Amino acid sequence: MITDNESAKMLSSHGVIQGYNGIAAVDDKNQIVVWADAYGDINEAGHLPQILQDLEKQCKDAGISEDIVHTVAITADSGFHNEVNMKYCIEHEIDTYIPDNKFRSRDVRFESSGEHKKKTANWRPVHSKKYFAPEDFHYNHKKHTASCPAGHPLRLNMKNYKAEDGKYTGDRFRGIEKVCRECTLRDKCIRNPQTPFRQVTFFHRSIEGPDFLNMAKEKFDTATSRTMYSRRMGTVEPVFGHLRSTKGLNHFTLRGLKKVSTQWRLFCLVHNIGKLKLCW
Ligand code: SF4
């Protein structure tokens, strides 16, 4: 059996495959790949600080810029939105636009997006049913009390519930079975008709210091940030599309991190040569 200990299991459109993750940083003006490397790791987000440091060094060595990460705006998809990355970018004052994975649900422009999906012969717009979210309940975290949208007090089920390695503390509440069964708002509150009562958990941050995730979210929830992020799709995705469909790199054909990384960079280099030819 042939094995490659440096590779990892990757989720792909063909299911889970053993392989590598090719990552690239692309400039938005000419779609030149300015940095590329491959990782035997499904968690590409864990490499962002290293990617930014490598990018900075590479541009410095090439005489492009002494401080590239502080002279450009950087966008990345929501997979890169985590506490470590946001902390790194905020503390190093790097102008990043990296959304969390719920950013579309907060954007009114996506409210009717379901209507534009898969228009087939029998297509009907999908209006998913909205249920009460924790924000629709009233919660007092100092008194550990809560009431539901129908105005009924909830029972405290679990106090100071810890989540995300203790970063968040929460209180879990449940409705009163008899009240929930007879409630006129039950349809909007409980998904499964067999469920006897509603449960809801409220979290609040329990560690000292800045909340980097929220700071990043607040920065992202502005028209300028969203416009900036919307450019990402037309910047990096065509490069991946070009490498896959025109250059034929549907999968890496070598084994071992060093060889795969070289293969990935060579393909990016060939892509860049094509782009440079267009510029001249
Ligand atoms: S179903 Fe229960 S928790 Fe939900 S609104 Fe009605 S009484 Fe309140």
Automatic annotation (TrEMBL):
InterPro entries attached to this UniProt entry: Tnp_DDE_dom
Domain (Transposase DDE): residue spans on this chain: 147-276
One Pfam family this sequence matches: DDE_Tnp_1_6
Record PANTHER family: TRANSPOSASE, TRANSPOSASE DDE DOMAIN-CONTAINING PROTEIN
Descriptive protein name: Mobile element protein
Lineage: Bacteria, Pseudomonadati, Spirochaetota, Spirochaetia, Spirochaetales
